[in-house]
Amino acid sequence: MDTCACALELLGMLVYVGAWLCTLTATILPQWLTMSTELLAIESYELGLWETCVVQDIGGMECRAYDSLLGLSYDLKLARILMCTSLAVSMLGILLAVPGLYLVNSCKGQGGHQTKRSLTVGGGALGLLAGVLCLIPVSYVAHLAVIHFFDETVPDVVPRWEFGDALFCGWAGGFLLVVAGLLLLTSCSCSQAEAQPTLQRRHQVRSADVSSRKRSEYV
What we know:
- The protein has about 220 residues and is α+β, with helices and mostly antiparallel strands.
- About 65% of the residues lie in helices and about 10% in strands.
- Helix 1 packs antiparallel against helix 4.
């Protein structure tokens, strides 16, 4: 067992699971965008993918789900689709990478090693894809918030949306998904580099056995 590859795989899987939880949290949280007004300082508003909320300083919070999917803006529709797709792809990547771990002895032999390596590569590639799918909607919503915040045509007294906690959680989840995918792919490279000298040694031993047998036959 290659210690380096095994350590990278375990670290990659831990980061993978943590990234999936961050992505799930970002998808569920209503704090994608927040807004507070000077006229009513005791209340603030929160905008999420599934609902909007009104938060009061005294501790009260009231949320209301969106009435219709067709009535949503295109940025929220895009964010919903991509975040749910990222969750599905990352979960598939986790399920695909688990059988490919060194510690899971599901396959034996040279063919089994290639199968496990293929599963790990597939899980890592899906992690990279899921990370990109998560970063796109989060960054796009943040980009729109920045454009609207610095819009000079809007008077300064008009309240503007600002970044919420869910955006930072989404950035963390997308970045960690990319890191998890790279760790799994790197572990495959390490295991392949370790396997080549082993195969060469086996070939040399077999060649030496064959030559010794031929010499014994001649004798």
